[in-house]
Write a structure and sequence with these properties.
By secondary structure, the protein is an alpha+beta fold. Helices cover about 40% and strands about 15% of the residues. It contains nine helices and nine strands.
Length: about 325
């Protein structure tokens, strides 16, 4: 039922194959809504669409709903792929505690196959949550675990310029720089609580947060970077000093660093429960998610699409 990805397929071909897979799953469900394998296949198709084509949260929410439906069928409750795939969905949706639970369930069902990697992923997410709770509560602005900027090739274009000069031909003038990108007209809000979403907005998809706050922006300063499995994760503070976790997706490795000031357009912040050390209650952390980094400014300079990570889907 699920069309396997073709090696070397173009982006358009991959998108068509996934659309065909979704169509086949839906047709099977029209014939038999109790076809658990069709629900599992539909969820996996939506997950592939997210990872390979769109990187839109709508696909993740559709995948999550399909996986939840698949889990209601007894024959699929012992399927490790269901829980492993759903763990990936939860991690991208930043439901970290649920992601850990599904990774460990997959490892329990298949300790030899997916088990080792699922356990490693679970432990990595748990360590990240502990580090976030410690960093949010410590008041520290140290730079432990920060990433280093990528090396930039030096001397690019110099040999050709020297060759032109040696031949007695003046080097051509450099092309004019492209005009800087511009953010839309924005109203800067007072702080992160001004763009705090209710749980229904984020999880249920009633009103898209990016539409709800389309004309607003929030400013934060990066205090620290922590390791995270799927995104670049920072501890930051708004101008009142209130701390928030910023997760950046589709961004190149050297685009943001500790000490930078971010102006985030169309922001939304939600409360997320992070597990504390064993035997202690969980902590509620504010999370500011940025899926489209070309709609933020760093130290007054608009990112633009050139700073997106290689392969990032651009609208």
């Amino acid at each position: 039922m699920l069309r396997e990805p073709v090696a070397g397929a173009s982006g358009e071909e991959t998108a068509r194959n996934l659309e065909e897979s979704a169509k086949l799953c839906k047709e099977a469900l029209l014939l038999d809504a109790a076809d658990g394998k069709a629900w599992l296949g539909l969820g996996s198709t939506y997950l592939r669409q997210f990872l390979s084509v769109t990187f839109r949260l709508a696909e993740l929410r559709k995948a999550l709903n399909a996986y939840k439906k698949a889990e209601t069928f007894k024959q699929l409750r012992d399927n490790p792929d269901l829980y492993r795939n759903r763990a990936i969905v939860h991690c991208y949706l930043e439901n970290y505690a649920l992601s850990v639970a599904d990774h460990l369930r997959a490892a329990e069902l298949d300790p030899v196959g997916v088990g080792p990697d699922s356990v490693e992923q679970a432990r990595s997410i748990e360590a990240m949550m502990l580090n976030v709770v410690a960093a949010i509560g410590s008041g520290s602005s140290d730079t432990a675990n920060t990433t280093t900027s990528a090396d930039i090739p030096r001397g690019s274009g110099i040999p050709s310029a020297l060759a032109a000069g040696a031949a007695g031909v003046p080097a051509p003038p450099p092309p004019p720089p492209p005009p800087p990108p511009a953010l839309p007209a924005l109203t800067e809000v007072d702080g992160i609580d001004s763009v705090l979403c209710d749980a229904g907005n984020v999880q249920g998809g009633t009103t898209a947060p990016e539409e709800r706050f389309a004309r607003k922006a929030v400013r934060v300063k990066i205090l620290r970077e922590l390791n995270c499995p799927l995104s670049r994760l920072f501890v930051a503070a708004d101008k009142a000093g209130f701390r928030v976790v910023v997760t950046l997706y589709n961004v190149s490795s050297n685009a943001v660093t500790v000490g930078d000031e971010l102006l985030v357009a169309s922001p939304y912040v939600r409360n997320c429960e992070f597990a504390g050390p064993s035997g202690t209650p969980s902590s509620v952390v504010r999370l500011l998610r940025v899926d489209r980094p070309w709609l933020i400014a760093v130290n007054g300079k608009v990112f633009g699409r050139a700073t997106a990570a290689a392969g990032a889907p651009l609208p």
